[in-house]
Amino acid sequence: MKPDQQVPRNALVWIIISLFTLVAPHAERLPLWVLAVYLFAAGWRIMVYQGRWSFPGRLVKTALIVAGFSGIYLSYGSLLGLEPTIALLLTAFALKLVELHRRKDAYVLLFLGYFICITEFLFSQDLLVVLYSLFNVVLVTTALVALHRPGEHQFNRKTIRLASILVLQSLPLMLVLFFLFPRIGPLWTVPIKSHTAKTGVSDFMRPGDISRLGKSDEVAFRVQFDGDIPPQSSLYWRGLVFSRLEEGAWRSLRYYDIPASERRPPPVAIQGEPLGYQVIMAPTQQNWLYSLRYARPVTPGVMSSADYLLFSPTEVEDERLYRVQSWPDAVLDATLSDWRREIDLRLPAGENPRTLALAAQLRARAGDDAELVQAVLEMFSRQAFGYTLEPPLLPSRDQVDAFLFQSRLGFCEHFAAAFVTLMRAAGVPARVVAGYQGGEINPLNRTVIVHQFDAHAWAEVWLEGEGWVRVDPTAAVAPERIEWGLEQAMEGEGSFLSDSPLSPLRYRGIAWLNTLRLRYDALTWRWQSWVVGFDRAEQFRLLNKAFDGISARKFMAVLLASGLLVLGPVAFTLLRKRHQHQLSETDRCYLRFCDRLAGAGVRREPGEPPLVFAARAARELPALAPGIQRISALYVQLTYALEPPADSAALAEFRRAVRQFSPPARAAAGS
Amino acid sequence: MQIQGLIDAAVAEVGSVLLGKEPQIRLALCCLFSRGHLLIEDLPGMGKTTLSHALADVLGLSWKRVQFTSDLLPADILGVSIYNRSDASFSFHPGPIFTQLLLADEINRTTPRTQSALLEAMAEQQVTVEGETRPLPEPFFVIATQNPVHQSGTYPLPESQLDRFLMRLELGYPHPRAERQMFQRKRTSGSERVVLKQRISHEQLQLIRTQAAAVHASDNLLDYLQRLVAYTRSSAEFAVGLSPRGALALLDCARTWALMHNRGHLVPEDLQMVLPAVAAHRLVPAGDYAGDGMALVELLRREVDVIRA
Questions:
Q1: What are the C-alpha distances in Å from A181 to residues A264, A450, A532, A566?
Q2: Does residue B174 sit in the same domain as residue B39?
Q3: Among positive and negative, which fits the CA dihedral B104, B108, B110, B113?
């Protein structure tokens, strides 16, 4: 191996370090054996460096490849999909280290390293992930720099400093590209996140589903209001409406359940000033969005459903930013269609006989529907119903009976389901609404942080003249849940976040820790609204604002101009440097002559002097020998025998000779 | 044509005893014409002595040989004053160095003390013994031979001493065909050696030297030389680059080489031809560079293009 092909020791150290920092963020998603492959590969390469082991032979390499593929297949059950593909890439990345032989291999590995840096963004676009990736980019660049500093034996700081400077210097270009590079939609779609568990509210509700969410401290979404934040007790974030009760679970209407005439939301009379706000949602892999009632989307691409809910045509796979306007006092469905009424009164036949009897009893006592609602709420608050995160299990049949007359302990979904069942039994159209309630206000930037434990279910009943009215039976049982949030409501029970002892939310009592948490949350908000939310529409809006109306042509011009602005000065200095030792006319002519010979199949080697080259070329192309000899002799005469200014007659002769020299192309010469 | 003919005849004459080594013979002649001393580094029995002896014959020079051993003292080379009883005075008995061509055989087997006595004489063309400076004959050449340093019982010449030799050559094993011819040739009786004809007279040698100094070096060529030298000083593979003396040596040898090929001007080929012999022993590879001086020369030749791009 030529010495300039060797991988210097320093570079090897940096390569191995960056290998591990690159795989680190993927570690929790990878099967354990992939991490073992990393240790194994690094160990092997170090042994090779020390001269104790040798590089693997072809047979071993093939075996490793086969083992890698089958390992991925066995771990994931498939080679397709995002996670298996990335696991495959990462395994290959580690194994490449074992055959890291020459500098060329190191280039391949390091360029792959840059690519692997990006793959982390497929899973998270968090601020911390970005900072970590930047750190990785610096490390990989350091390895590249070290590759070109063979003389340095000491592990020194200069290398990483140079790499950091390089990365810093590239930041302006990165910013320009970030703002101006066209956001092109993906040309193909990857089946994404096959294994990611879906978090958040799901599209059906069984008893116990929401109380399980109550134990999670993940952020569901963050909201920033244009004006004042409404009181906590009115923050009901609607996500789904459950109208069907089937197989013991409340489900939303499927699109084809709805007759065609009912699929579009009926017009709503709006009055007063809307409540404007912006939501940034964490990825859910679902397609419904959260809003206060009655919401109209401002962001294009967000749609409204017949239940006055917002949804996205595609699943929310990344942080999603959208703007909404809400009119909390608008009347929804002033008149109820027969189909709706039928759907929202339906109960499974023959179930919950005691509940039906109770409903009939209450119906007889109450005057109108509103009084009936009051009567049921009063029953919840007066009788010994308990609100708990750990409700007892209910039997699979007659669940509402069991809840109302036996256990009487439940979470919001129990109360909502029981309430809706009672209402429907009494002939009042009612449905369950699932979503989140309340949220934590970050005083630093006035955003509302809604966590998974704010998940909630409540009811809506349809009253003559008022349309759909929100009724929250939980508020009757545990008013502190609505006023203060879940933590206060669970104070006695101690079950709040009992499964996550390290959650910073558990330590809100420690002032500095809480401030730190809120500060980071405010930063995340900024990051998400400025960077993650900077999509095609936002880019267009910004450019429109900056350039007073923008067309495709203008956009291209801006892109080019800013590229020129950044690269122009660099190019200028480089070109000027080149200009300083510009080639003489003779040399240029000679190089043209060399190009023509290269076209005929004889290339001048690096460092090959003209007469040696002429002899070789004449030997290989005997037909052209006289021309080659003559031109070379003239060139040597002009360049080495005479002092400039060169004899103009000789120069002219040389130029003419080169111009007339036209060897046939390689194909012709070869035949 | 005159000079090239002379040289070709001389090369052929030497080549008749040292078979198949024409390039080395030409380089050795080039070195002597450039007023330089020659270091031949090779294993024993490769024809080092034969070459030097043949060169002395062809140039018509007086010739002496000193076999260097570990107990050789400076006086053994330079000479010594001996008391003469008859006229009661000291008279100087010149050592073997007072000759036109000295073969210093296996120079690395002697102690540094003796080595430096010889090297001083080589540099200054004169010796100082007992306070009296005596000039050495003109022309004065030293051909030193050296075993590869990894053999035991040697004192390798330090880099600074190596620099005093204009060229270093390796003879290497002969080509199989040349070797076969050697086997087939009838041995001359006993140990008597073949005496070669003088092909170049002292006047012609002088002429070659003056004409070589007049060989034209164009700006473009000096530019190439400077880029070569600059590369050895800036590139990471070199621990020690070429000194100005090394660069001048390169230029001098290239001039002679051009003249030997009947050219009145220097071309890059001349520099490249003498580059391995002149530069390899002056270049020291950086610590982690796997190659030796020859690999460095090859790298240099490849990396620095003749045309500045």
A1: 37, 33, 15, 14
A2: yes
A3: positive
| Residue B54: Cβ within 10 Å count | 24
pLDDT tens string B57-75:
999 988 898 998 889 988 8
Average pLDDT over residues A12-38: 91
Sort A166 into a burial class: Cβ within 10 Å, 0-12 / 13-18 / 19+: middle
- What confidence tens digit (pLDDT) does each residue in B12-68 have? 999 888 888 889 999 999 999 998 999 998 887 888 888 888 998 999 988 898 998
Q: Which domain holds residue B85?
A: 2-185
CB contact under 8 A, B237 and A3: yes
Q: Do B268 and A640 touch (CB under 8 A)?
A: yes
Domain boundary among B170, B185, B200: B185
CA distance linking residue A8 with residue A601, whole number of Å: 36
Q: Identify whether A138 is part of a domain.
A: yes
In chain A, what is the straight-line distance between the N-terminal and C-terminal CA atoms, in Å?
Answer: 35
Domain that holds residue A613: 585-670
For residues A137 and A214, state if they share a domain: no
Asked, for residue A527, whether it belongs to a domain, the answer is no
CATH number at residue B158: 3.40.50.300
What's the mean pLDDT when you consider all of chain B? 86
Residues A83 and A219 in one domain: no
Which residue among B219, B289, B308 places its CB closest to the CB of A3? B289
The reported pLDDT for the residue numbered A498 is 63
How many residue pairs from chains A and B have C-beta atoms closer than 8 A?
A: 76
- pTM value? 0.52
Domain count, chain B: 2
Partner A, chain B 224-263, Cβ-Cβ below 8 Å: 236-237
Q: Are residues A53 and A131 in the same domain?
A: yes
Burial class (CB in 10 A: 0-12, 13-18, 19+), A500: middle
d(CA A307, CA A290) in angstroms, rounded, equals 13
Q: Which residues of A are catalytic?
A: 412, 456, 472
Tell me if A587 and B307 make a contact (CB, 8 A cut-off): yes
Q: Nearest to residue B118, comparing CAs of B150, B88, B91, B141?
A: B141
CA A41 to chain centroid, in Å, comes to 30
For chain B, say whether A329 makes contact (Cβ under 8 Å): no
Instruction: Tell me, yes or no, whether A625 lies in a domain.
Output: yes
Task: Look at B236 and A150 and tell me if their CB atoms are within 8 Å.
Answer: yes
- Reported confidence tier of residue A151, pLDDT bands at 50, 70, 90: low
Chain A residues within an 8 Å CB radius of B237: 3-4, 150
Q: In total, how many domains does chain A have?
A: 3
